[in-house]
Amino acid sequence: MNIEHLNKLLFEKANTLSSIASGQASHEQLDQVCLDLENTISIPNAQCAIFEKIGDNFYFIAAPSNKIERLNDIDEVPLSYFGYKPDRPASFDLKYRSFELESNIQTPSEPTATPSSPTNILHTVGVPIINDDNCLIGLMVLFSNQELAVNRRQVEFLKFFSHFTSAILTAITASRDNELKIEALKKSNEKFRAFTKVMPDLALIIDETGLYEDVHGSPDNLVYISATEIINQNVNDIFPPADAEKIMSVIGAALATDKTQEYEYSIQGDSGVAIFEGRITPIHYNTDESEKAKHVLWMARDVTEAKKTQKKVKQLAYFDPLTQLPNRRMFNERLELTVDSKAMSQEFGAILFLDLDEFKRINDSLGHSAGDKLLKDVSERLRSTLRKSDILARIGGDEFVILVENVGKTLEQAQLEISIVANKVQDAFTAKFEIEELVFQVSCSIGICVIDGTTNAQNIMKFADTAMYNSKRQGGNSYSYYDPQKQTLLDRQLTFESDIVSAIENRQFCAFFQPQVDRYGKLCGAEALIRWLHPDKGMIPPDEFISVAEQFGLIQSLQDIVLEDICKLIKTLEVEAILPQDFKVSINISHSQFKSTNFRRLLMDTLDKFNVDPSFITLEITESMLSHDISQTVQQMNEIARTGFTFSIDDFGTGYSNLSNLHAYPVQELKIDKSFVDRILDSSGLSIVETIISLAKNLEMRVVAEGVEDEKQVAVLKGRDVDILQGYYFSKPLQFEDYVQWHKNNLLAF
């Protein structure tokens, strides 16, 4: 190359460097570098290509001559393809490689390899492209179908062009990175604009003088005029003086402390008062955080609906929705405060625990709407009776509780004051209640516990509840003070409840069977009776656990056990061919089970499980179950009777019974209580039994006498045409296996 050509090349490259410096680097410049190197290096048939290093690979980016077939295949090749290693520091180190065109182009061979056909061998010299940080950023490669060897002068040219290529490639990379950043920024700005258009909050840029400089967001109801109209206006021009002064004071506090301030304010609009929460944050436009901020970002959020919802939630959390009285949660919190205060003041307080008498009867017979009306009327009467300082709450169902915080400094004075309050409460029930054009006389049972500061709130409620149940046991319409002995009884019942639950799980309960014979001495049935066979205490009588089971909702589980044992007995007698066709086993049904809407389904589920016909089973109910909601009761009994069950009224004559409606029920038998049978040898007792028998015969019902214990009773009852006899005279209740054996031995004995 002559001097004139070299000067021209240097002049052109100087212009190229000038354009690179002005940000005009391009891939065309890389193509020109390749052409200039090919013309300058003076190697016949040599072709130049430039690769960019991205990650651990080289990528083909320039080769304007492209005379070599399949050169484009050398793309995305690992650094090792040209002899470079990613973990080695970059340096100007020429790499010689050769490979066969017809073989796998990704497998280079060493220059010493002897090709079978020289024309298929491609020889290369790799020149590293290094940036100012001595990092490998690319590769400039000379290709030739002849072996390559470069002299010192050619090496200098290669260095010159590699440095020059480094400048171009660095500029291209920087430009590309800038374009990506600009594109990302555009997208970010577009997202920001889209977000601010729909965000529920209003973002306001305000300077230290109160001037609105920018607004983002959609709501227009956060200020007195439209959000888009407040730009370049001042806070003092928009808000009334008092509101503007408060806003400017908050802005001043944010700028003075350089901390975010929170501010709640309200605005009177066309649709009423709106409440807003504002977060005011200082803005540093300069990157120097030490410079004092002169602007704030005011984020305003409409919390009007949230405040309304919060108020509703509080209302639901602390007040009864039906009566609007404080609920259990609110009452308990107030009671705890009262207990704490009494511990320091040495004064007495008290709570009165109220439960309405016979509320369930009204609720069941007239429906829940009538019950709700009664509860609201009761709450209004009680509210008008008590002092403003007294706290009345409804804590659930028909239970109310009254907190009287100050009743005296001595126990005698406290009890006198409490009795006055209790009498006033009972006086509130003197007038009758009118519900759905019906008039009811309602009373309440009251339990009282004195607050002396030594007992916690939870126990005070429990003690008052115990006292209330004592009033219930006395017949209701009365008040009782807490008695520790009765609390001990309640605690024993709670322990007993846990024992019953455990006994059910461990199958300690089972049915015993007491035989029934007709007046001709033929075995015709049996009554199934629940028994508890305790592993340590032995046989526990039913009267010790039935009431507790009913109180704690466990009676259904016990009756399920009895019904299953009945089914097992019937299947056993059937298999052994000792089941009379008219044989029936009776089971006592509790009030809660009888009133259940799924009573029939529960019965049939058990019978279907054992494949037992319902006609073998008699359901014994009490008179009290028939005294409410006659039409509904008759409908339910008819549905059950249609499946094959029969009904019997147990202990007839011991409870209230509306004889005029007795014929309406699908009942097949009346059962004379043992208390009447015991007095059958007396004239007064005999007349009662004869009356029951006469009533049953007129209604075409069978008569069953239970508790028969001697031969004289048997003779009298048979003489009065009693249909079925049951009692110890024939057999005591027997366990399953014993009854089956007794059944076999006495099927035709009597």
Detail the topology: elements first, then pairings.
Blueprint: H1 3-21, H2 27-41, E1 47-54, E2 57-62, E3 77-78, E4 95-100, E5 121-130, E6 136-144, H3 152-198, E7 202-207, E8 212-216, H4 235-238, H5 241-257, E9 261-269, E10 272-283, E11 295-302, H6 304-318, H7 328-345, E12 348-356, H8 359-366, H9 368-385, E13 391-396, E14 399-408, H10 411-427, E15 433-435, E16 438-440, E17 444-451, H11 457-473, E18 479-481, H12 484-505, E19 509-518, E20 523-534, E21 538-540, H13 542-551, H14 555-575, E22 584-588, H15 591-595, H16 599-610, E23 617-621, H17 630-642, E24 646-652, E25 669-672, H18 674-678, H19 683-698, E26 702-705, H20 711-719, E27 724-725, H21 736-746
Parallel strand pairs: 17-18, 20-22, 22-23, 23-24, 24-25, 25-26, 26-27
Antiparallel strand pairs: 1-2, 1-6, 2-3, 4-5, 5-6, 7-8, 7-11, 9-10, 10-11, 12-14, 12-17, 13-14, 15-16, 19-20, 19-27, 20-21
Helix pairs in contact: 1-3, 2-3, 8-9, 11-12, 14-16
Fraction of residues in helix: 40-55%
Q: How far is it from the N-terminal to the C-terminal residue, by CA?
A: 142 Å
Largest sheet: 8 strands, mixed, barrel
Q: Which band does the percent of strand residues land in?
A: 15-25%
Poorly predicted tracts of residues: 103-117
Mean pLDDT: 83
Structural class, judged by helices and strands? alpha+beta
Cross-sheet strand order for the largest sheet: 19-20-22-23-24-25-26-27
What would the keywords be for this entry?
alpha+beta, 750 residues, six-stranded antiparallel beta sheet
Report on this model:
- With 750 residues, this protein is α+β, with helices and mostly antiparallel strands.
- Helices cover 43% and strands 23% of the residues.
- It is built from 21 helices and 27 strands.
- Strands 19-20-22-23-24-25-26-27 form an eight-stranded mixed β-barrel, surrounded by four helices. Strands 3-2-1-6-5-4 form a six-stranded antiparallel sheet. The chain has a five-stranded antiparallel sheet with strand order 8-7-11-10-9, sandwiched between helices.
- Helix 1 runs parallel beside helix 3 (152-198) and helix 2 (27-41) packs antiparallel against helix 3 (152-198).
- The protein is elongated and about 145 Å long.
